[in-house]
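FW: tagging you since you asked about this chain on Friday. Here's the raw sequence from the shared folder, copied in full. Didn't touch anything.
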Amino acid sequence: MAKISIISYNVNGIRAAIKKGLTDWVQENGFDIICIQETKAHPEQVDVSAFEEMGYYHSWVSAEKKGYSGVAIFSKVKPDNIVQGCGIEKYDKEGRVIRADFGDWTLLNCYFPSGTSGDIRQDFKMEFLDDFHQWIKELRKERPKLIIVGDYNIANHEIDLHNPKGNKKNSGFLPEEREWLSQWFQDGFTDTFRYLHPEKVEYSWWSYRANARANNKGWRIDYQSVSENMKDEVVFSKHLNDAIHSDHCPVLVIYDL
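HL: got it, structure written out here
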């Protein structure tokens, strides 16, 4: 397969993003694999003919609730196998995980829950983190080469958000969330962006309030993490801030497989 470009992109509604020029942007760039989070749609609600004409195969996991959550993978290489969901009903009915196998490596596209709407969802988020980590430990026995991309909804270190001091008590930068993410990276996963750019400040999400994006007052909450046995195959990583179809920007990583 040689060099392969993978995009992770929370589009905050794929139909809205298409109206903002997503399809043309994909055509101009020709990425090999595009992992979309927050589709907020079922595939039959979306005109994907342009993607199909560009040669993309696509697979979706949508939430039961209309206009909510959902993930999809668009790939120019046909996956050997697609698994919809992680087998845990309360997460699968929210459309949070999709898996694609390519040869000896596996790609997981994930939309981690947000806890910003209150304690109930924050508790749900923490349950998801624990259950997801446990599930991945099992999956690694069967599929040891993993790329896990998506909106993790957590900034790991102070360098990863514009105002760390003011956000210490806010979901997305809580001590227990950061501890989970640090543990994740200690348990045999590599943060591809930090691996290549230990000191660089780039963000992947900005609030719609207070002109945050124009002033680059953002958070880095979208990741592509890889199992340790794949980190040497990471050759390039960048946040594509010029792509404005959402309150997030795409995270590009190029792998030499």
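FW: The two ends are 6 Å apart (CA to CA).
HL: agreed, and The helical segments are 14-19, 22-29, 49-53, 89-92, 119-142, 175-186, 192-196.
FW: great, closing this out.
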